[in-house]
Design brief:
Largest sheet: 7 strands, mixed
Number of strands: 33
Strand content: 15-25%
Shape: flat
Radius of gyration: 32 Å
Distance between the termini: 54 Å
Low-confidence stretches: 171-212
Helix content: 25-40%
Strand order of the largest sheet: 18-31-32-33-29-30-19
Mean pLDDT: 88
Structural class: alpha/beta
Number of helices: 21
């Protein structure tokens, strides 16, 4: 296995654990940019990322007995200590943490169980990394149990830990200086989740209080969950939260995760949506055990409906829709509620046949029409629909409702915990009542808050309106909150995962700002994305350097001055340079400016047309000038035929209101202007961009390539990526 990390931020605990357990690691400590999380490359090509994810992995694969606990209980206790370890990087809480561990060790030889575990290694590394501060306490008598424990581990594993300390804790001054940066890195990494080459890597949520909540009645190895989207649209950011929470708990409890398509409404569903939902699930890195369809259970669901009708727990109702809705609201029993079983079966057969009489009917559960919870007032179980199903064609004329099939299929598939957003809270009693009537075991419901975003619609019905009315190109439009849309806009999946998991399984309703998500994204892309130069084509201004090189020459420059992995590019230097008009009009005669990646120049003459528009600048090089003393740092492009055409696209919110009220029509607040195109010229190296490449255009922002270079006359299309600063809605 290969371990990669920044030289200033070694994953101390994981390295120490590997030394103690004899887990071989090939260490590369110079090839990661500062601030990036440590990464472990596994033999199968998958990657794990994050300091404490690596520690846990070492614990799991080590041959050392009970290194990650003897049983599930011990493993959980070890997790507690691992999540506690970062506190030793907090100056204000350091001694309090020492006191707490010292008290625990009063009657314990090790932190968990009767042998060393990764819990001990995590705390030992935290103390060792504190450098002089810990050394001063170690020499005192303030924490005798902690010192005894620390010295015992150091002595017993001196052969390997001595080398470890010499390598990682004694470079360039005190260990404290080295590890102060580590703590900042770990604090950041502990909130991260990454996707590498489509592989999902989840980090322990050591700093996310929301994830300290356990699933009720969950047992390690026995948890079975399901993510059940309806194939009536693409996966959006709200669905992503549900999918990732299911994945998180499946991983945490070493359980199973099923992807089930709730395909019970042929009017809205299609194979296109199924295919793209699976694509989006893969993009999120969700690892599932099986894919199932509610339609697979249609025969058994019909048998259950007939069983309930025969037992008098369901009936067929031909009450008109509007009247039925009124009666449910008022708690009035339907006139059909006391039909005989024979009459109900007669009408049920009409429904199955899709006859004119059957189309007037539906099957309702006989629950309690006077219950204060209106969800229990005889909900609809089955209704007729003559639209062919995307999987099974016209075989059925009747389809179960979500309220009916969900408790059935959950129980039938052996689901132990159904994660549902709190918007379904009023239906929980209905869910349990239906399972009871069916004679099934109880499936535990775990609620979490729905993820709502400002200026954003997440209703698939409303999103479909934008598609059908040509307000967006498709479901993957960069203005859409779908996974494909925001990824196409330039969001890295690891940023989305980190953002969602930071919200945790909280049950509090929240309206989230997009700025926070894009700020996380910026922290991921900025340290590694290449830099390019572009000049806005409209009214661009030519700067002529009278003493500049008449014969253009080329220099090879780094695309990112702090990250070699971004590669190099060829930059042309000439006596004729294009600059942005906004820069040109801000320059004064005889002003000294800095030409980025070249040096200073003095503008001697400013030419304007009859309207006062700057048309040309004339200047001389002053390369010995002090770049720190100039006010303007100009980006520029040499006037050559190698420049490429660019189309820079910026996007705005689809609606102009931050939060839509329930009774408000979204059509009234549709933003009429959500797309802005700016034409520009880019440096020649940009013709090598591929679709999906992310870059920074110097002094203009971050962009993602959507359409790469094809031919000189066709522009490269770049989508502007928000950088986390406050976005204003277009007027």
């Amino acid at each position: 296995m290969e371990l990669h990390f920044a030289a200033d931020a070694p994953p101390l605990a994981a390295l120490a654990a590997a030394k103690i357990a004899g887990v071989p690691l090939k260490v590369f400590n110079q090839d990661q940019p500062a601030g990036s999380p440590p990464t472990l490359l596994l033999p199968n090509g998958e990657r794990l990322r994050g300091a404490y994810v690596l520690l846990r992995h070492v614990g799991r694969i080590a041959s050392l007995p009970f290194f990650y606990g003897q049983d599930a209980c011990q493993s959980s206790k070890i997790d507690e200590w691992v999540e506690y370890a970062p506190i030793f990087g907090s100056g204000s809480e350091f001694e309090g943490a020492c006191s707490s561990v010292n008290e625990h060790l009063l009657q314990n030889t090790f932190l968990v169980g009767n042998s060393i575990s990764i819990a001990d290694v995590a705390i030992w590394a935290g103390l060792a990394g504190a450098g002089l501060r810990w050394e001063s306490l170690r020499k005192s008598k303030k924490y005798p149990n902690l010192v005894r424990w620390f010295n015992s581990i150091s002595a017993e594993h001196d052969a390997v830990l001595g080398e470890f300390v010499g390598t990682y804790l004694s470079k360039k001054g005190s260990a404290k200086a080295v590890t102060s940066k580590l703590k900042e890195s770990q604090a950041s990494n502990s909130r991260s989740t990454a996707v590498e080459n489509g592989d999902h890597v989840t980090e322990a949520a050591s700093s996310r209080p929301a994830f300290e909540v356990d699933l009720p009645y969950a047992e390690v190895g026995k948890v079975k969950l399901r993510f059940a989207p309806e194939p009536s649209g693409y996966l959006h950011i709200g669905h992503s939260k549900a999918a990732l929470l299911n994945q998180y708990f499946a991983d945490r409890y070493k359980g199973q995760l099923i992807v089930r398509f709730d395909d019970t409404n042929p009017d809205k569903e299609s194979s296109e949506f199924v295919d793209n939902l699976l694509k989006d699930i893969e993009t999120l890195g969700i690892k599932y055990n099986a894919v199932t369809y509610t339609s697979d259970y249609f025969p058994k669901l019909m048998e259950m409906a007939e069983k309930l009708i025969g037992e008098g727990k369901a009936y067929v109702d031909d009450t008109p829709r509007e009247k039925m809705q009124h009666e449910r609201m008022e708690g009035i029993e339907s006139s059909c509620r006391n039909n005989s079983v024979e009459e109900n079966f007669k009408l049920w057969k009409e429904m199955i046949a899709g006859s004119e009489r059957g189309l007037m009917c539906c099957v309702r559960g006989k629950l309690n029409m006077q219950d204060p919870n209106k969800a229990l007032r005889d909900p609809v179980y089955y209704r007729c629909n003559l639209t062919p199903h995307h999987r099974i064609g016209s075989k059925y004329k009747v389809y179960p409702t979500y309220d009916f099939c969900c408790p059935f299929v959950d129980s039938f598939e052996g689901i132990t915990h159904a994660l549902r957003s709190s918007e379904y809270h009023d239906r929980n009693d209905q869910y349990y009542r239906i399972q009871t009537d069916m004679g099934f075991r109880k499936v535990h419901i775990y609620e979490f808050s729905r993820l709502n975003m400002v200026y954003t619609l997440l209703s698939k019905r409303k999103l479909l309106w934008f598609v059908q009315n040509g307000k967006v190109e498709s479901w993957d439009d960069p203005r859409f909150p779908t996974v494909q849309g925001i990824v196409r806009r330039g969001l890295k999946i690891e940023a989305l995962i980190q953002f969602i998991l930071e919200q945790g399984a909280s049950k509090n309703l929240n309206l989230m700002e997009w700025d926070k998500l894009w700020a996380i994204n910026k922290k991921i892309i900025d340290p590694v994305c290449p830099r390019y130069t572009a000049v806005i084509e409209e009214r661009r201004v030519l700067l002529i350097l009278t003493d500049g090189p008449k014969d253009p020459f080329v220099r090879i420059l780094a695309k990112h001055k702090k990250y070699e992995g971004a590669g190099e590019k060829a930059v042309t230097y000439s006596n004729r340079l294009w600059i942005d008009y906004a820069d040109a009009e801000s320059i004064s005669v005889n002003e000294e400016v800095t030409l980025k990646d070249w040096g200073n120049a003095i503008v001697k003459e400013i030419k304007k047309d009859e309207n006062g528009i700057v048309t040309q600048l004339v200047g001389v090089l002053h390369l010995e000038g002090n770049v720190k003393k100039t006010k303007l740092k100009l980006t520029w492009l040499a006037d050559t035929t190698e420049l490429v055409k660019l189309s820079l696209l910026d996007f705005d919110y689809l609606i102009t209101k931050k939060k839509l009220e329930e009774d408000e029509d979204f059509v009234d607040v549709v933003n009429p202007c959500t797309r802005k195109e700016t034409l520009a010229l880019g440096e020649s190296d940009m013709r090598n961009l591929k679709r999906g490449d992310v870059m920074q255009l110097e002094r203009k922002g971050y962009y993602r390539c959507d359409v790469p270079f094809v031919r000189p006359s066709k522009p490269i299309v770049l989508f502007a990526i928000p950088d986390g600063k406050q976005q204003t809605v277009a007027k």
